[in-house]
Specification:
This protein is 43% helix and 16% strand. The chain has 242 residues and is of the alpha/beta class. The chain has a single domain (9-233), classed as Rossmann fold (3-Layer(aba) Sandwich), CATH 3.40.50. The protein binds NADP nicotinamide-adenine-dinucleotide phosphate (NAP). Residues 13-14, 16-20, 38-40, 43, 64-66, 87-91, 110, 137, 139, 182, 184-185, 187-189 line the site of NADP nicotinamide-adenine-dinucleotide phosphate. Residues 8-183 form the Ketoreductase domain.
């Protein structure tokens, strides 16, 4: 039950920044052959170079996960994967009355429909081979009420609900499906000041480093998480415990 992922292919969406980048780097360090997905070629090549410099294996494939055609092209380009990390996400916060219909739809297209059709594309192959691991990146906003988070939080609650359903659908055939629900984490999702404003509401009273989220993702992706499926695991400095 070690975390060795040699010989395994791991696809990480949103690997060009923040949590996804940390996950891609950490999965490669565990031996996985990483497919880093995002829209920015420049940042994609940058993460691939970081992995290669550390002796790992990775390639960048550009795709927009909010676009069903983009997902189809991605699936055709990569073939089978053993680990799928649905990390790409759009985070729009603000007063309910200020959210435009297009932004509401974009939230659900990126955070819910994208992961849904990626699982639809990859989970059946994992099930046929009798093993695989899917990790969805939720959020503490999916389980606690926070002002300005109604639509974003709903996308994460939906992702966590799908995680439970997918566990019942695919785990009998060897595919584990889990969610990791981060709290505030230093990424491009917010300025330092915006993120640090959350700290006093967390028992740990600080913001996370993306690598702290990646640790649990790799645990769940590897054999170390062999009896975990259908769960949503908070890595939120204790916020959802209070
Ligand atoms: N940071 C936090 O405090 C926090 C807390 C809880 C949950 N989360 C969740 O963690 C995940 C990662 O967020 P982050 O904070 O690391 O954000 P980030 O630094 O802004 O990175 C977001 C990533 O998602 C990709 N992405 C966004 N829309 C995409 C699309 N339509 N198609 C393909 N890729 C797309 C971006 O890549 P490109 O720009 O290259 O497309 C980028 O790599 C998200 O699901 C977010 O909701 C973050």
């Amino acid at each position: 039950m070690n975390e060795d992922l040699s010989g395994r292919t791991a696809l990480v969406t949103g690997a060009t920044s923040g949590i996804g980048r940390a996950v891609a780097v950490r999965l490669a360090a565990a031996g996985a052959d990483v497919i880093a997905v995002g829209r920015s070629h420049e940042r994609g090549e940058d993460v691939v170079a970081e992995i290669a410099d550390a002796g790992g294996s990775a390639r960048f494939v550009a795709a927009d996960v909010s676009d069903p055609d983009g997902i189809r092209a991605l699936v055709e380009a990569v073939g089978a994967v053993d680990v799928l990390v649905n990390n790409a996400g759009l985070a729009l916060w603000g007063p309910t009355e200020a959210l435009a219909v297009e932004d509401f739809d974009a939230l659900f297209a990126t955070n819910v429909r994208g992961p849904y059709f990626l699982v639809a594309a990859f989970a059946p192959g994992m099930a046929e081979r009798g093993e695989g691991s899917i990790v969805n990146i939720g959020s503490m906003a999916g389980s606690v009420g926070l002002p300005g988070s109604a639509a974003y939080g709903a996308t994460k609650a939906a992702l966590e609900s799908m995680t439970r359903a997918w566990a019942t659908e695919y785990s009998p055939r060897g595919v584990r499906v889990n969610s990791v629900a981060p709290g505030p984490t230093y990424t491009a999702a917010g300025t330092r000041e915006e993120l640090e404003a959350w700290a006093p509401s967390l028992p740990l009273n600080r913001v996370a480093d993306p690598r702290e989220i990646a640790e649990l993702v790799v645990f769940l992706a590897s054999a170390r998480g062999s009896f975990a499926t259908g769960g949503t695991f908070p890595v939120d400095g204790g916020r959802t415990a209070v």
